[in-house]
Amino acid sequence: MADECQRAQMVYGKEGSGMIKNWKVLILIVMVLGSVFAVGLKTYPYGRDGVEVVYVSTESPASGMIGQGDIITHVNDIPIKNLDEWKVQVAGIYGDVRLKVNKQDISFFVNDTLGIDTLDIDRNNLNLGLDLKGGTRIILEPEGENISAETIRQVMSTLETRSNLYGLQEMKFTSLGSQQGGYFIQIEAAGVGKNIVDDLLSRQGDFAAKITRKESISNNTGVLDLGDNNYEFTVDGDSVEIDDQTLLPEETFILDGIEFEYLNKTDTTILFLAKVYTGNDIELVYTDPQRSGTTPEQNGFSFFFTVLVSQEGAERFAKVTENVPSYVDLNSGSEYLDSSIILFLDGRVVSDLRISSGLKGAVYTTPVVTGFRTTQEEATQERLTLQTVLRSGALPVKLKTTSVEVISPTLGHNFFDSAIIAMLLAGVVVLVVVFIRYRSFKISIPLVFIALSEVVIILGLSAANDALIWAAVLLINLLIIGLVWWKKQPLDIYVVIGAFLIPLLGMSSWTLDLPAIGGIIAAIGTGVDHQIIIADETLTSKKKKDYDTKERIKRAFFIIVGAAMTTIAAMIPLAFMGIGLVRGFAITTIIGVLVGIMITRPAYARIVERMKGE
């Protein structure tokens, strides 16, 4: 009985030990499964059928009722499955229209145009680029006369700055000319909605901060105190005369180098607006958490951020507020000036703030921009938009949107089907070539499997909405490594780092475009080379001891890691300083190389080592 128990313990102990010895392969399998789930595990809160709204024009009767990202599943009670069925249903549509949007019925009347652009619902979590997914083409026209090519270059430079600061990816800006000699700016982008066009791209960004000055009128006369100067004014009906200038409401004038606007009057008071800050005064827009953020309020969320203005602007603030009286707020007990500072952007009021009495006559260089929205997402987006516009500066001219249209993928809707077929054919070719070299499917099949697994892992890392999946992968990797350590098996430092680093990279996402696909191809190409090095170093002689096999693998990895580090060093400057095509290629290449040296190469080395032992 004791002998049987001992024999069973030896058998099961060997099986468990064998599984632990192959822990590198186990981590590879976990990473591949996690990548498959990251790409394909997608939720459909409104069902798999329908179309996704990408743009709603301002002329659309559904404007304000439907927004970017909404899912339309029915048109006049007729279900639609995809973009083709949507086009059939809305072709020539007129009169009363009823749409089911996000499972809610919306009705409106179409008189001229529907004004809703859509695309098919995404079937996976990949962030595809413009060439693969399609997107939106926007035509902007500069307003005004004497628009030159230099003006267009300045506009495009500012727009590119805004898109980069806001975090928009893969936007293509092109200058177009008309036969009449005019200029247009064409923007092609994936996933850009109406709010981005209206609030960020076509907004001129003309900033101004104005302080109210309410002055008393007695016997049709009054005095406007400005620093050490006193300016008398007289009122005659709606007009006011000051400093030898006769003004009507909303007209501007200059006093002591400061622009004022005559706003309105009553029988006893008159209201002026003094412009103390302009966009040229903004030297820095703070984005750190101490001076920028969003806070919950009653019935919504408020946002704030601080800007640093020039010394000249701060001196104008001091001059305008020096003679303003103060009052005590009975609710809070705080003392404020009897004026407010109003912040304008393109003529629209952004903030209307009270001024603390402690700032009276002070050189104030850090005004705070505040606002309010009903949801946290809206408040955060508005704050980011305002910060982006102020940081990029004002456009030299105003822009108006002349057309918006949805563009189809450059490579066609069947690109992924063709890519899968090409990948399988490439795998077959590699399999045949490697088989001819080694005369063994036991070597060639794992090599092809490892190469294809790298593709799957890179795609999984690029996917979005997969943080929970990669957190689970990280936890499983931790358990595997902990078990290996507990069993006192040797740990590979590269695999240990990769088991933690790669899932963390998977919690982020990036756009998968043509340059990124080029990076995947480059990474896979070097991966196949590295695996051939491992196979050659390990299997060239069949009469070596086990420890010699390990030495051969170490020698192969010395070559592989050296080549990988050289590749990463070459790609890092392009990833952080490059733009457009080069940056996407560099990022994907770096991630592909990291996956190779930390996950797939060690797993393949373990497979080859086991074959050598057999």
CATH superfamily heading of the largest domain: Multidrug efflux transporter AcrB transmembrane domain
What is the number of helices?
A: 15
Low-confidence stretches: 1-16, 543-547
- Which radius of gyration do the C-alpha atoms yield? 33 Å
Largest sheet: 7 strands, antiparallel
Helix share, percent: 40-55%
Q: Structural class, judged by helices and strands?
A: alpha+beta
Named CATH topology of the largest domain? Multidrug efflux transporter AcrB transmembrane fold
What is the CATH C level class of the largest domain, in words?
Mainly Alpha
- When the domains are counted, the total is 4
Give the oligomeric state of the chains in this entry, treating copies of one chain as homo and distinct chains as hetero. Answer: single chain
Assign the CATH architecture of the largest domain: Up-down Bundle
Termini Cα gap = 33 Å
**Which overall shape is indicated by the principal axes computed on the Cα atoms?**
elongated
